[in-house]
Design a protein that fits this description.
There is one protein chain. This protein has one domain: Arc Repressor Mutant, subunit A. The chain is mainly alpha-helical. Helix 1 crosses helix 2 and helix 2 crosses helix 3. Helix content is about 70%, strand content about 0%. The longest helix is centred in the last third of the chain and has 35 residues. It is built from four helices and no strands. The termini are far apart. It is rod-shaped, with a radius of gyration of 24 Å.
Length: about 100
Amino acid sequence: MNSYDVIPLKLVEKNAILAALSFTTGNKELAAKLLGIGKTTLYRKIKRYNINPENANKELDKWLSAQREVAEAILTRSIDNERMIKRAKFYRPRKKGGNS
């Protein structure tokens, strides 16, 4: 497991709120119901995470874009590692010495 496998809970919570607000087009009461929390709790979390409900779509898109970049970087690194492993399997160092 590496640091890419763990997403901080604050970030998960904030993005769940953004997704709910985006899905409900800013309807806080409905967003709270979707999240399974009270409306007062939602308002408190909106304030804590400094979320602007009118910009929920933009913020969510930014986060998703960043996640895609991370996923692509991980995939690229994984593919590069596979290539190195394949090369290593075919690479056989020459024996030193004079066995002709």
